[in-house]
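User: Hello, can you help with two protein structures?

Assistant: Certainly.
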Amino acid sequence: MRPADIEDLVVPGPPAVRGDLLLAAVSRPDLDADRSHSTLRRVSLAGGGDVPWTYGPRDSSPVISPDGRWVAFLRAAEEGGPQLYVMPAEGGEARKLTTFALGAEEPAWAPDSQRLACTARVPEAGRYGTEDADGRTPESLAEAPRRITRFDYRFDDLGFLRDRPKRLFVLDVFGEGEPEPLSPADYDVKSPVWAPDGERVVVVVPQEYDRVETLSNDLVAFPAGGGEPELLASCPGSADHPVFGPDGTLYFTGTSHTDGVVVAANCGLYAVVAGAEPRRLTDVETADVESAAGTAVPLGDEILVAVRNRGAVELRAVPASATDAKLDSLRVLHGGQVAVHGFAADGDTVVVVAATVETPGEVVVLGADGPRVLTDYAKTLRDKGIRRVEELNTTAPDGYPVHGWLVLPEGDGPHPVLRVVHGGPFAQQEWAFFDEAQVYASAGYAVVVGNPRGSAGYGQAHGRAIVQDLGTVDVDDVLALLDKALERPDIDSSRVGIMGGSYGGFMTGWIAAKHPERFRAAWSERAVNAWDSFAGSSDIGYFFAAGYVGSDPEELRKRSPLTYAADVRIPFAVVHSEHDWRCPLEQAQRQFVALRQAGVDTEFLLFPGESHELTRSGRPRHRVQRFAAVLDWWSRRLS
């Protein structure tokens, strides 16, 4: 895979299914337009294959009405946010339903198939292109200052929050007029779902209606016709994706903060019945629900969820009667060396979007005879050549098991090697196609990736092993996995580089200072380099730094790569995005200056206009330019 081949990364989003209608939004980077292009595709349940159902340029989030007659989806024009559209399920003209200033989100059908709920950010007058109270536009006058009184006033890749709250709307699909918000402007709402009676819409809100900063949520129900919300449940931590079961039980995914630890928390499945506290159905230590894969699906006397398990994301079934069910007790519907990134069900039909090391994602139907792959979106990638991935298992110096993978280039070697460390840290490298590793392996590098202590998917204790102890056993695991790969005769132990982003960038800076003899050069991207300033400058710094390091100034200094910049003795690339609010630009600037002052061979690469998400969802041309810069760096340092 070459850098420009990111255009071949065709990725289906979460599926929607009703009867024989199966839809998925399929996206790919478009280098000519320098943005992502996405359309809805209809996938054949009977024979496989797909056909266009819409033509974009940016269509997403299809939801099929309960009666199967209509499909709602989001469509964004070349400029502006996405708006809500509806069209007949048999195809035809799409009708635009909304004209929100900043676009619509999260469409959800009412049981009567006549109404839709959605959320939308509503800007203050005079901001984000809207007129002020005197009818003037922001283009004709300077924007007013923001009065900030809270920690949680902005979010990376989104922007400022308090001047454009996300509010709940209900639309009559076949009526006229603009909808009015049901929720107030005092707090954000998310994840709307209709109650079975069709009279209420349940949403997730910040606990205590966001009166103070919080990382915990409540579930509340708004009357669909307007009125005061009703509190249904106070959650023990974060919450997302509520859904009703056939008996009226309300399920949601979320974490618990009752032990006082707000980082590295396994996500669980919860149930709420009237008048009772939420009950956790899954075990907090062993079962980690992948909330990003979507909403749980009640099916008979079970609830389907995606769970993280040793690099896999598996579709498993949780008994509705369960309490603290351990991972091994949950029935597997689709597992093994896969990463389920979306799923849906209608009756006995269960479909997933699943990635493997050879595809970024395919639509798969699950049946009694096993999974049947319906699409072949990775064909072009396969035709160009996908590099082999081998599993690695080893132990750290203290005997702890370490798990990862080696992506191998063509030829006999010996190959130079790159140790790539993932971000998070509470995330996992997956059994999934990884474009970065494939690009580097295609350029002749052996690539070592894995999940050291601090990662998700191996039990909560694994993830919390580095809480208040960064730069210890996680370093041991990173190096142990590298050493396992270096045992091979086709790997050149004299030409080794280390690289990573975010937490992986932190690890790169830390290891380059603590173990410079192990590597020829380093590439540190969007990194945490100095915990003291990160605590105040990052969008999540006010809780994240304290959660992982603490609040003692000396401890913050001791756990910062910046403190040890003078100990780096290898060429070091500092790479950052101009609009990164997760690990703000000052983190890179301080590291670059410290390295230069220490006499280190240092380069600083800065991407304009990008956020923390550059490598995943940045502008396509920037992604290609970044790949070119990475390969240029390593060609100069590992030749």
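That covers the first. Now for the second protein you mentioned:
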Amino acid sequence: MKTKTLIAAIFFSGLIYAQETPKKDSAETKSIEAVTLTKQVFKKQSDRFVYDVAASPVAKGNTAFSLLKQTPLVSSTDDKTLKIIGKNNAVIYINGRKTNMDAESLTQFLKNTPAENIQKIEVITLPGSEYQVESSDGIINIVLKKKMTDGLNGNMRMGNSQNYYNSTYAGVSLNYRKDKLGISTNINTSENIQEQYYILRNGSSTTSNQSEGRVTDPNKNLGGYLNIDYQLNDNSNLALTWNSWANRSYGSGSNLFNTIVAPNEDGDTETRYSLTKNVENSRSYNNSLNLNYEWKTDSLGSKLNLNAAYLNYKRFQNADNRTYTTDLTRELFNPSTIITQSTPQIINNFSSTVDYIKKFKTDFTVAVGGNFNKTKTDNDTKNDTYYYDKDGNLVDQYGKPISGPISTPNHFIYDENIYGFYVTLEKKFSDKFSGKIGSRYELTNSVGKSDNSDFSNIERDYNNLLPYVSLNYAINDKNNISYAFSSRMRRPSFWELNPVKNYLTNVNYTQNNPFVKASSVYTNEFTYMFKNSYFLIINHSLTKNVITQVPLQRDKVRLDANNQPVLDANGNQITDRELRYIRTNFGDKQEMSAMIGMQKSFFKQYLTSNFNIGMQRNVNNGFLNTDPITGDVFPDYVNKIKSNSLLIQTNNTVRLDKNKTWFLGVNYWYVDNQQIELGRLKSLMSLDANIKKVWNDWTFALEIYDILKTNKVVITDYQDNGNFNYINQNQYNQGLNFSVTYNFGNKKVQKIRDISSADKDIKNRTR
């Protein structure tokens, strides 16, 4: 992985407000039936919240992405990814079908889609059995307006952002319809440099190690998609979808100044300095094809949906990590360690899904379906390590002279087959009471093979029965209550399974783990809504076998060329500080939350506001003292701490003129101190503002993010055994963005069907 992703993975595991790639496994979908709303802007209906965009003034001149950030229960803390409050991730659907795009191209698609094209947005906080989403993922379904005439329309969008560095982006989207044929396409490109600053500190009462410095990551991106949809007859459609995304990051690097405090050979405490320079070159490609067939079997809405997909993902990465001895003035001397790495990854996947919905006249619906995923992941990695003595001679880790580097190649191949089946029964008993019950059965067979004897044959066979139930009762026109229970699982991403070390410095590294097991998540949720404007959500989730990154650290005895301990002048063993961030299963975790909120317009719709406030309680129960890869024993790392945290979010749009052409936006979110897997996370918050001008088919927007410079990550952890760990991360989130959007063509063009790809769950696990 790239350096920025590696380090971010260390810090954001378990972070409740972190933006995960619409991180996860989902192998088939179910069409979400549209419900016609009248004048109600926001309401609770069955298993979802419905936000009627067409009846709201917020949509005017907005993009789909900006509109989603204004949607109740939805937030974005980085202007790149979306999440549902209280959920790990928001999976995006369009017209009831999951988008067949990776995270970055999906963001560009949403930022280039006019909000005026959207009829409503549905927020499903606890999806049913027909959705194969992961852990506590929720769903955001965008329902587009239906337009009837033939023709061509589209929009062009370009923008410029200024954070630490300047970045640019541009995109073009086109929609064409002629009789039975519909074509939709998009191409977008961006170029940016992401700058971050880190302070990493760890140690014990006798030794400590601090690494401080910058990480710079330049990126060039090019992506797009092509959807071709043909109506075979009045009851059936055939569609082909192609998605492509490419990223190039050459010259990504970090410069970390290391300060080591430890005993020396004389038995005295000594401070040593070194500088680690890391340079990485990487490029990745993601291409997929999906063939879809849909057959409407009756006039009630019954239908058969078939999908077959192929996904090819490639990533090539080379890194050069050099640690030099230096002094306090940072004057470089001889290199002490050089580590070169090649970590390519190739993923090939074939996926298929079958879904059938049968509707009856008695307001009863039966849905059945299944999926199959076959994935092969090829990781042919190589690691060469060069150690140097004080005179610059090449030695091994014990100081013995050698003629070449220490090479550790590892060709790891991971094969995985997933079979899934589900059944869902839904019944509307009356105008007030409805319910849904269902279950999903998943069977996973996987095997990992390597030329390294430690990972030569790793088999993982498991099956899961995942029940679901949802009940909804409308007490009267003003009051509605609902309850839902869901059970889910979370499989590790493919990069997490690849047994490779990724070095930050010569003594700090992250370690992926092919032995990671899937975790299970059980969630209960109660919802109350009043007057379609005010709501209360109470949620409890239990996660077993949490997948996260655990910091294991110890004082490692220094050995000589004869593999014997090096002693100081007093006869004591000399130790060096070692830190490993291990990707593994780490106990259980409970999250309990109570959230109250409001979505309402005031002053004749001159002010539109949504507001959420609530409390979250985290109960961690994790313990680890052994590296699951090597078996090395470390001092206990324990996290059995409970914490309470306050959460606040508000989004406000003010219409500044009668003609609805000028808009002012003020947004704010706050997350209180809380205990996560890595330690105590300091409070986070961000104040953002924007102003927008709509002029005919043009929209001009100026946005300011993190005005107060408060969106910074600080984590502290102190163990009873004296070990401590401190993380300070500044991503320079404060920034200024200016964008121009132009809409052109026939505004009555009908949007073609958006097709759910059979490989969507595999795409999520490549990130």
